[in-house]
Design a protein that fits this description.
Length: 297
């Protein structure tokens, strides 16, 4: 297929671009800056100079081009912010960015659209030991600052599934780890704060496994379907920090909540286990790295 990829230079975008090209797809990649365009070319894709949040500029840049599919992998997660608001950059990309890219799909004549979502949309709370599936309620707010993230995820999935000109598929990824993420095993990468005692339990996925799942969804994902993309073993934040090696910044719960309230909701309040059985069954995908111990190695 000929694919327009938004987010090609991000943590998942880089391995995804390589995987798409490896499988014979042609990749057009949005690039906001000259530096991004150079990175896109180095990955083997063709840069399209445009910003997904600039509707008019985006549509002008795509005029005369065609594609079979659009993949939305844009986020703005360079570092955790002290506060989280409704106009958080990642939320803007999930709401306005999704709307603009859906319109772009129409201009391109693309019939497929994949969007990035998160398993955290099942709710930032203690779900106990029960393993959740795609049949469980999604978009459950809890009255905390994390509700802004939930709203953004609902906006992205809702806009996609309401569109009648594309066959839309949502990929609900676990928390990313691996190169370019908060949990990057590369020597010298930044230190991410984690709670003393390990904190809550969440599903994880290596960015290379997430990329492979996305390629599989492009080929076999169902219209109007969502898929959990996670590894086999959820674990707490402290385990990832230990497996990562190097410097570790472990904070008491009260300090973590005070410094970044969102990280309190994410790292302390959330205990979540989900199944990737549907993705394995329908996409033919399973994680090459079954858990973080294999992935970090």
């Amino acid at each position: 297929m000929r694919v327009l990829l938004a987010g090609a230079t991000g943590a998942i975008g880089r391995p995804l671009t390589r995987a798409l090209i490896r499988d014979g797809h042609e990749v057009l990649a949005l690039a906001r800056t000259n530096g991004s365009a150079s990175t896109v070319r180095a990955l083997g894709a063709e840069p399209v100079p445009a910003d997904a949040l600039d509707r008019d500029g985006l549509l002008r840049a795509l005029d005369g081009l065609s594609a079979d599919a659009v993949i939305h992998q844009l986020t703005a997660l360079k570092a955790p912010k002290r506060t989280l608001t409704a106009d958080d950059p990642s939320n803007l990309l999930r709401a306005r960015g999704t709307a603009n890219l859906l319109e772009a799909a129409g201009v391109l004549g693309a019939g497929r659209f994949l969007t990035q979502s998160l398993v955290l949309g099942y709710g930032y709370r203690d779900h106990g030991d029960r393993v959740l599936t795609e049949e469980d309620p999604f978009g459950v707010r809890g009255g905390t600052v994390a509700d802004h993230v939930i709203t953004g995820l609902l906006e992205a999935e809702g806009r996609l599934f309401a569109a009648d000109h594309v066959a839309g598929t949502a990929l609900r990824y676990g928390v990313f780890y691996g190169p370019g993420t908060w949990f990057d095993p590369t020597p010298g990468s930044r230190t991410t704060p984690v709670p003393m005692g390990g904190g809550g339990v969440v599903p994880w996925v290596h960015v290379e496994d997430a990329a492979e799942a996305t390629v599989a969804a492009l080929a076999r994902g169902g219209e109007g379907e969502a898929y959990n993309i996670v590894d086999d073993r959820p674990s707490d934040w402290g385990e990832l920090a230990t497996a990562r090696g190097g410097r570790q910044l472990r904070l008491p719960a009260w300090a973590l909540r005070l410094m970044v309230p969102y990280l309190g909701a994410l790292m302390l309040d959330t205990r979540l286990r989900v199944s990737h059985a549907k993705a394995t069954r329908e996409l033919g995908w399973s994680p090459r790295h079954p858990d973080h111990r294999a992935g970090m190695a």
